[in-house]
Amino acid sequence: MVNGADLLSICPKFITDLCNYIKDIQTTMTMVVMSPPLSTLQLTARFSPFLALTSNQKLVFSNGCLQLSHKTWRHTMFVNAKPVVKDGVLSFNGKGALTGIPDNVVVTPWSNSSIFLGATSLGSGSRHVFKLGHIKDARLLSLFRFKVWWMIPRVGNSASDIPIETQMLLVEAREEHDESTSYIVFLPVLDGVFRSSLQGNLANELQVCVESGDPEVVATESLKAVFVNYGDHPFDLMKESMKMLEKHTGTFAMPGMLDWFGWCTWDAFYQDVSPQGIKAGLKSLSEGGTPPRFLIIDDGWQDTTNEFQKEGEPYVEGSEFGARLMSIEENNKFRWTSEPVSNTPSRLKELVSDLKKAFGLKYVYVWHALMGYWGGLHPDAPGTKKYNPTLKFPVQSPGNLSHMRDGAMDAMEEYGVGVIDPAKISEFYDDLHTYLVSQDVDGVKVDVQNILETVAYGSGGRISLTRRFQQSLEKSIAKNFLDNSIICCMGQSTDSIYHSKRSAITRVSDDYYPKNPTTQTLHIAAVAYNSILFGEVVVPDWDMFYSRHNAAEFHSVARAVGGCGVYVSDKPGQHDFKILQRLVLPNGSVLRAKYPGTITRFLLKIWNLNKFTGVLGVFNCQGAGSWPCKDSSIQREGSPEISGMISPLDIEYLEEVAGKSWTGDCAVFSFNSGSLSRLPKQEQFEVTLKTLHCNVFTVSPIKVYNYRIQFAPIGLLDMYNSGGAIEAIEVSSSLAITIKGRGAGRFGAYSHLKPRFCSVNSKEEGFLYTPEDCLLTINIPSGAHSWELTVSY
After folding, report:
1. Which keywords has UniProt assigned to this entry (predicted)?
2. What is the pLDDT of residues 626-648, one digit of tens each?
3. What single string gives the DSSP state of each residue in 192-211?
């Protein structure tokens, strides 16, 4: 028998079995893990590893690591299992979810598989913490806010492992001697003017905290505080749960910038951004063959003042967050003219128009905070006085204060925020966005969104204030911008996300910190986990990154499989074009996958789909960072190699692209090695990676065409997301397969027969064919952005 101490000595690593959501996340096989909190990393008696095996799993050793063999995957439909409460126990399909439910808990049936949980109190208050029942000896995953702005994951096996400010809880439901695994999701929601979050205590009781954010907004009950649903497939469960809660979500148009390569000015210049710097950055990226078509002019363009930073006085850390907006127009740096000999002031419009003309930009966004700027609006400035700003000092909820302090919030608590009068907020957004449109700006990145929950006192509470601001913001976006052009940021709270009816893109990670080596792997893992929830509501934004950096390929591969926008924040001239050209086509477009990239059932693997292929990114995050909120140290073991197994079945919903003619086998192309393998869908093979290393696998179902040709397109072999280049496949009766796609370079496919000839855009092209692995390679000439490739047999 292997105990926790033996496991640590064998392999201080993990399996992040997150599509089983957590099924094997605390075992030792990993490639996932970047030193999570002690509660998920150290395999002690309290946080024991998940070693329960089903009949089709085996416990094996490989390369010194204890591993679980791959579990046979079954894709099942949503479960119809009416919830039952009896003798203080909530169960679904005979599987217990909560025990010891108190008498004041209220259960409201919602569907055949779901309920709402709420509770009543003897006294009224603006904040209640209700006990809902016990959870013990059950594998679980929490997504919780560790700062007021941001969310990260944690796993455990009882309610005591559930952190304060948990916004999603997924629990594995199984009974002793029952090999089947099902899942129960707990989603704290918005109930009237109260917002809910989950937490556990040392008695293993699950609690719900409901709060209004305003001492004057009180209640004695919250009857629909937590939505609870049951299913036997975790992704289906999340999808169906959000559909049931669709009154909290909306439909939205997809901004066009998602399909184009972008550049953001923030990490290139921070607040010292200037027109000259922007031109230099766009010029160097374009000359390297990866022209940005999307630009974000980040913080530093606005007309602000800061009474806490005086010339000649020493800098005070955090004082920049005391700056306030003086007007909706640009500052003097951006009153720029293209004629250097002219002293005539210009407007932002001249710069934007010049940039679009000179560099072929399709979209130019600018940054602003939800309240205008970090410190809000200046109360007495002529340009902002009409919006009746009032200086308020943020007050955080006890839940936020239980985790990490945030420097920006600490500063705003000290300096205050000029809060716009809620009755004037629609006018403010409309004035600002109308002005920006007049300056040729195409959209906005709206930051600091969670500030509302801290300044809601005296304004009807956090839910009412957030609803009013979000509705006004989205109304202005719809009126002024043609393309639903908004990126939301610093808004990872249910207050914001459940009020977003039109906003399509939301950042789902903390900031990218290029100077902090311990956060690189955590950034990738946080997005992959958080996308479980946010990916059902919005397109997750992965933030910018540096292309010239020791973790550049790690970030690049994650963006390639993330189904997200791709944009860097390189300093001018500081680029790695070898990496960028694997992401960006010569015309500036990117090969974006179909869905939000989400973790697989084993390892830290991120799966996604293209139109005709699957794509799988595999990452070794071990030993490169530590999750916040726990006294966990960074593990450094030189550069440890970690091995694990991958399979075509790691890609969920692969049958969407497989079709009826699928043989059941897949062509699997490894980007790192350039090798092609044929693999039955249930089979697996081993991969080994060093810390901060990664690989991308294109998985293409092998289909039978014309009853005799076994064929599977891979795509552009030199792009991380090779299959994203394929737009359509057509088959003729004359034993010819035509692939329509975009982008130049080496096109590859699996073909069990050698073709007679190949043509690109009706012109015959030479090809290479290796019968050992059945890899067919054809060169798409440069300049052929859109093409038709015909393989004739």
Report:
1. Carbohydrate metabolism
2. 677 554 444 444 557 888 999 99
3. TTEEEEEEE-TT-EEEEEEE
